[in-house]
Predict the structure of Solute carrier family 40 member.
Amino acid sequence: MMNEPLIQHDQQASTSSINGSFPSYLITYLYVAHFLARWGARMWEFSVGLYMIKIWPNSLLFAAIYGVLESASTALFGPIVGNWVNSLTYVKVLQLWLVSQNLCFIVAGGTMVVLLVNSSALKLTHFSVFILLVILTNISGAVAVLSTLAVISEDKSSSPQQDDLTKMNSVIRRIDLSCKLFAPVITGFIISFVSLKASAMSLAIWNTISVWLEYWLFISVYKGIPALQESNHKRALNQNRINTKLVSSGSYLKAWRVYLKQDTVLPGIALAFFGTLMTAALEWEGIAAFEIGIGRGVSAVIGIGATIVYPLLQSHISTLRTALWSIWSQWVCLLVCVGSILWTKYGNNNSNNISSWYMLMGGVALSRLGLWSFDLSVIQLMQDGVAERDRCVVGGVQNSLQSIMDLMGYVMGILISNPQDFWKLTLISFVVATLAALLYTFYLYKIRNHLFHFNKLFFFVKWFTFSSQINNAQLQ
């Protein structure tokens, strides 16, 4: 039953659009499956900190260790997983991803229930088991990201419509941001009005049920797209040869070499730089928790708006220029954050300091529009510019690079831990964002030999001047 597509192939032919796009129901299946996977991940992401505070109430060390391990494990295993996934067939990737991710969440949820119910189990020795769960969860998370990348990249290679890829990228990101916004809300209601144990049980139950539906939906997409089956057959034929080559070459170093040879390496590095430390700006202890929550919610809503704006911009000014406008629009919004530093430094009363934090949160929230538009642009540049055989490898290294930057953010937060010195983190964040914008600008100039069409700008200036002269003459 699980290996059968939801709609047979004769129906698929009749529902396919004339322009070569995929049947709409297959795209819907892909979106629903992605939602199921991301919702469970976002539930865990929000709840894990609350579990640790409840289990180890006298120390925040474990929460800090979790953050470091989360970034470090992805940074370490990202290239390896990317190389490994690239050598497997599509079906095996799905099976390993869905089993590993959902099993980790099921075991994690069950473990949390046991620890929360049995107070005698709250010992430091049990934390080693929890660390193992964290590492497994992050490995499966890396496979999850690469699996989605593999599906979309295969869709790209078999679809003649560039707009289809742009729309799919935007909707996939919109689903992820929507889960990031609403999963904590639902989980928070369960924790507040029922209990932490109930939330842990709901996490385990959700993943136990959803894994079967996820696999059914993804396999239906696979069997409904001939290009995926053809690619899967080629991978199966070459699997033994590729595995031997990867083992002999050293998968980790080889993955980084492949990544650094790509034309899109500078946009990838720029994307990793963006947003490294700015999220720490919401942790200041003078702002009420519900206000911080509202700020994060507004940021998520603006991020969702970026997934709507991006296809419109991309269709009018191309992916390259959309990325340029996005990255510099975020930079402009971050100027508000720099202004908040000056407001704090030269403010003479407490109200000025509170206002500066509102400025900081506002600047961060507004910058999300440019951030997620740039994120989508770089994803599409990599899908268009990276060879099919290297896509999963490059995706793994990209995840690793972004996790390394996140890890540096944690380290900076530890080194600059005094709230009075928080302005230093904000300033460092702005410098890093500026470096990212300059890197992408250099990349764009290198491949296009220009940034703007100055002849068009001169034409506009001449037209504006001429129009002004005519208006002045008419007034006289």
